[in-house]
Write the structure tokens for this entry.
Amino acid sequence: MPDLSNARVGVIGGSGLYAIPGLDQAEELSLDTPFGRPSDVLRLGTLQDMETVFLARHGRHHQLLPREVPYQANIWAMRQLNVRWLISVSAVGSLQEHLRPRDMVVPDQFIDRTQQRPQSFFGDGCVAHVSLADPFCPRLSELLAEAAASAMPAGHHLHRGGTYLCMEGPAFSTRAESLLYRSWGCSVIGMTNHTEARLAREAELAYASLSMVTDFDCWHNDHDAVSVEMVVGNLKANAVATEPILNRLMLSLNEQRPSSAAHTALADALITAPEHVPPKTRERLNLFTRSYWGSFPQD
């Protein structure tokens, strides 16, 4: 298990969350990666004495469609900054009656319906197959849920567990699709988290999501009554609600620094022997593989 004593927490903010209030001594870092530039500058500071890296998923001015988000660059940059616990804060639609607008869900499963997303850091002469049976880190999700349960403002309710349906977007579902996803037992619907979770697992980051409901998806009889103003209002309320939750979570993470199976996800996943991996690929993957294969090129 890697040394987590100096590891950092990453937070990726979705719709409505473009900064973290209370991030002390923050500096903006403009990074480049083998997969291009991240969505925006990364802000490194401290939150409750825990070193924290924040990134606006769609850019600080929300200029990136879900399929335009540079997911590989975002996850790479987080790992490059020694992030080992990654929290997604995301706006979602509800697929179930009991999940009301302004409720919060900490999901534990995914169904992926995306089409134009990066699937892996690997390829180009190197094969790896990580386990994704449990795509969210159970321990990190538990700590996140505990923080939400103890720190969420009035008017919000927490739901532990559930399936996040990840769709391509940017258009929302048809009514038939929404009813289909309900029949599958899905809880919420969004456009980003599965792609992040898949790549985070390859990067050996523990990943958890605070999925914040803004509205019912179009299956609901009252969907036509939902206005843009209502959704924006829920977005703003949810963004405000994250501050005490993240503060509480950082206290727990700083105290416990929990290990995760995700932190060694590549230990049994690397298939290609390193001597058969092309040099350019070895160098590109070195950030993830050096603890197993040694640094490349050799120091």
